[in-house]
Amino acid sequence: MLTREALDQARAMGFKMIFVLGDPDYYSRFGFSADSAADFPCDYSGPHFMALQLTESRVEVARVEYAQAFSQL
Fold first, then answer.
1. How far is the C-alpha of 50 from the C-alpha of 45, rounded, in Å?
2. How far apart are the first and last CA of the chain?
């Protein structure tokens, strides 16, 4: 329920796309996929870096940066 609520809130706020870094088996049930994130350069690119487009409008490709704390894990 928390993930679905976060997606609803993101849509209501006008977000066009959301990125996650996590378990593909879990996040794919919400529509996230590594294929959707493939065009966006990121240090964490691969099967666990996924995206979900929230609107029909075009999303400009840009580099995805995670907080510095992620690199310390």
1. 8
2. 27
One DSSP character per residue, 21-56 reads: ES-HHHHGGGT-BHHHHTTS--TT-STTEEEEE-SS
Phi, psi of 67 (to 5 degrees): -60, 150
Contact predicate 22/34, CB 8 Å: no
Residue 29 DSSP SS3: helix
Residues recorded for the chain: 73
For 28, the token pair is: 């794919």
pLDDT for 32-67, tens place per residue? 999 999 999 999 999 999 999 999 988 999 999 999
41 touches 19 (CB < 8 A): no
Answer whether 0.85 is exceeded by the pTM.
Answer: yes
